[in-house]
Every structure is written in C-alpha cells, then in structure tokens.
Specification:
Oligomer: single chain
Number of helices: 14
Order of helices and strands: HHHHHHEHEEHHHHEHHH
Shape: globular
CATH topology: ABC transporter involved in vitamin B12 uptake, BtuC
Strand content: under 5%
Largest sheet: 2 strands, antiparallel
Number of strands: 4
Helix content: over 70%
C-alpha cells in the first residue's frame, strides 16, 4: 500500500510539474507571438484615456471619440501599407507624400460642379497613380540596385514636388456629398473605421493562412532561403510595394475628406506617423514578423496620444517628442521581452 501511495504521489508531482511547464511554455509562446503587443497596447490606450479624462472630461465625449477614430482611420490605412513594406524587410518613405499628392489630384476632379463620371475618373486616377508609384518603388529596389530607403526617399521628394507643381497653394474644394459619405458615422463610430478593421482582419487572415502571406513573411525573414525553396522573391517584393501604395489610396481618401481641399503641403507627416504606428503594433523592423491588427491598434494609440497633447494644453512640439519616444520605447520593450521569453 505504501508503494502504491508513493507511486501515486510521484505521478501527481510529475503531473503538476508538466502542467507548470505547459503554462510557462504557453506564456513564452504568446509573448513571442506577433499578436502579443495587442494586450499592452489596449491597456495603455485605456489608461491614457482615463488619465486624460480625469484632467478634461471632454476627452471621452462622443464628438472627440469619433474624431480620434476618424483620424486613426486615415493613419491606419497608410500604416497598413507601411506594414507590408516592413514585413518585406523594406520601408516605404513615400506613403505620406503619396497620400498628399493623391488628394491634390482628387481636388481637380472630385469637386462641386463636376458630373459623377468626372468624379469616378478622379478616384480611378488615384488608384492608377498609386499603382505606378508602387511599381516604380518596387522596380527600383529589385532591378536598379536601390536600397528601400533611397528609392522611396527619391519618390518622397518627387511626389512632394509634383504636388506643388499641380497646386502652389490650397485649392479645389472636395465635393460636400462625397465628404459626407466618407465621414458617415453611427454614433461615435465612423463607418470608415469599421472598413479599416475589416481590411486589417482580411489582411491578417491572408498573412497567416494564404500563400501570399507565407511568401511575404518568407521573403522578409530570409530572402535567399525563400528563393531556394522556389518563391518568386522579386515578384513578391514588387507586389508588396504596389499593395503598400494601394492601401495608401484608402488613407488618401480619408485625408481628402478631413482637409476638404487639395493642399500640396499636406501628407508628409504621415510617413513618420505610419512607421511609429507599425512599430507600436509590434512589426519587426528586420522583416518577416508583424501583424496588421497590431498596426491598427498602434495607429489608434498614436492618434490618441497626439489628441491628448492638445487636450492637455501642450505645444505641438510635444507631438514629435512623443512619437520618437514611443518608437524607441516600443522597440526596446518588444525586443527585450521576446529575447527573454526565448531564454
């Protein structure tokens, strides 16, 4: 009987150890996963909202919540495009000026007094020009030996120049009906934000469960290994930059509705903001790892922070300080936590 009791006790002890190890293993797996940043991002957003609300009760008003989500939608779409580029171990510095340039183009077509056919042509031109920009970026990087920074920086400068060539000052007021449709809300929730979430979910599903997603991650993780197993690395890279530009079109549509006019000086700030949002969301700057859902959360947090700066009466200078600090802190935390989880 004593032997049986000892055996049972030993088995129970082993079982407890196995469960403990399973819990530790599960925790490490979660921390190392691409979705881990979603938890701290959500917590920080809630705490920040409550903190600012304690100083200014209007921060959580229906109007301001809708305003934050609307601004986050424009940034979110552009940041989704940036996510694609970073997953490829690249970067797209042209997304901001591209958004501004597309709004300037739209200001000649999608304006009051133009027939529906002309407005439709304006939207088609926005898409077509974005495809051209994405193709040029991708081709310069893959076939002209440009680095991603050099190629997209050249495009950044070129697009800004084109914007000022088309309009040397703000002009061309966007059609009011189009603006109303784009900014349509149910309560404090913009329908465009719902579209952003759906696009992010679809992109996340494709990234995890479809061949294009596997190609994207494999190319960004190790290009030579991806090439050896038969993946068309060059085509994936070019397609990725086209996708980045097309997602920027959606951000440009939101920007168009927000500023309501073709302004050549607008858009440039979205380049830094999109990189910040993507890094906050947990996408690796080394490529191969990332999450579109995290990017949306990163865009929401960044927009909330910038909005909070205004509500707290701080100068605009602090917006740039906080953006830089957020990138640094997020990158350090994610890298440190994942490294320790591996150990």
């Amino acid at each position: 009987a004593k032997i049986v009791a000892a055996a049972v006790s030993a088995l129970t002890h082993v079982d407890r150890e196995d469960k403990a190890l399973a819990k530790v293993s599960g925790w490490r797996h979660f921390v190392q996963s691409d979705n881990a940043p979603a938890v701290p991002l959500t917590v920080v957003m809630i705490l920040l909202a409550l903190g600012v609300f304690s100083q200014n009760s209007h921060f959580l008003s229906s109007f301001n919540v809708g305003n934050i989500l609307m601004l986050a939608t424009a940034l979110g779409f552009i940041a989704l495009g940036q996510t694609v580029a970073l997953l490829l171990a690249g970067i797209d510095l042209s997304v901001g000026p591209l958004a501004g340039f597309l709004v300037v183009v739209a200001s000649f077509f999608i304006v009051d007094g133009q027939p529906p056919a002309m407005m439709a042509l304006g939207f088609a031109l926005m898409i077509g020009l974005a495809v051209v920009v994405g193709l040029v970026n991708g081709l310069l990087i893959r076939f002209a030996a440009f680095t991603p920074i050099a190629a997209t920086l050249a495009m950044y400068i070129g697009l800004q120049g084109c914007s000022f060539l088309l309009r040397d000052s703000p002009g061309g007021y966007i059609n009011a009906t189009v603006v109303e449709w784009i900014t349509w809300q149910i309560g404090p929730i913009p329908m465009a934000f719902v579209v952003l979430v759906l696009v992010a979910l679809a992109a996340e599903y494709a990234l995890r469960n479809r061949r294009i997603g596997w190609q994207l991650r494999a190319t960004g993780s190790n290009e030579e290994s991806a090439r050896r197993i038969g993946l068309r690395v060059d085509r994936t890279f070019v397609a990725g930059y086209v996708a980045s530009a097309l997602l920027t079109v959606l951000g440009a549509v939101m920007l168009m509705a927000q500023i309501g006019v073709g302004d050549p000086a607008q858009g440039g700030d979205y380049t830094l903001a999109s990189i910040t949002a993507v890094v906050l969301g947990g996408t690796s700057l080394r490529g191969g790892r990332g999450t579109f859902i995290g990017t949306v959360l990163g865009a929401m947090l960044l927009t909330e922070v910038l909005n909070a700066v205004s509500f707290l009466g701080l100068s605009q200078t602090y917006q740039y300080v906080f953006q830089g600090a957020l990138i640094l802190v997020a990158a350090l935390i994610y890298a440190t936590v994942r490294e320790r989880a591996r150990g």
